[in-house]
Amino acid sequence: MSAPWLVVGLGNPGPKYAGHRHNIGAMVVAELARQAGASLREHKASRAWAAEVRLGTAPGGVPGPRAVLARPMTYMNLSGGPVSGLAKFYKTPLEQVIVVHDELDIDFGAVRLKRGGGEGGHNGLRSISQSLGSRDYLRVRLGIGRPPGRQDAADYVLTDFPMRDKVEVELLVGDGVDAVHDLVHLGLEPTQRRFHAR
């Protein structure tokens, strides 16, 4: 049996962080789990909440590929240990690891995808790259935009999305879900063409 995909949504643990911009990746994984009828539970071999699912439906109504949906139980800057632990446990190759995360350098509401590259100052990505020993995993990058005025970026990512953006946040989460499905079913380049053309 082939190894499952590993889809990791980044964020900080606990209710006080739940609505933060930094937690948009975790929101996407929560929605993926909800749509799959699964609950994220503490994983026995890693400091993460995880659920094994089938992602969507393949042509002919066949259940989609196996995937592990996960979010680290650690704070963002320690995400790497849980991710590498899950990848080892499920024997998931690097090319099937998808990390869903917030991105300051992308306009709010936009979705961009890539494999590899730098971390752009994102502590969660830096930790994952160090623990996996490579940067060549897939990223679903969810645009949260730059902070207004002189607000510090670290403060900006650790604040809730304003209520006026509620609908846009829901749309961004939905686009993140669609991007993960397309990555798994179609591959990187077709998914990039779909989302980067917007």
TrEMBL record:
Classification via Pfam families: Pept_tRNA_hydro
Biological process, per Gene Ontology: protein quality control for misfolded or incompletely synthesized proteins; rescue of stalled ribosome
Keyword Cytoplasm in annotation: yes
Site positions (Stabilizes the basic form of H active site to accept a proton): 102
Protein's cellular compartments: Cytoplasm
Enzyme Commission no: 3.1.1.29
Top-level taxon of origin: Bacteria
Residues at the active site: 22
Annotated Gene Ontology cellular component terms: cytoplasm
Record-level Gene Ontology MF annotations: peptidyl-tRNA hydrolase activity; tRNA binding
CDD domains noted in UniProt: PTH
Subunit annotation: Monomer.
Functional note: Catalyzes the release of premature peptidyl moieties from peptidyl-tRNA molecules trapped in stalled 50S ribosomal subunits, and thus maintains levels of free tRNAs and 50S ribosomes.
Name assigned to this protein: Peptidyl-tRNA hydrolase
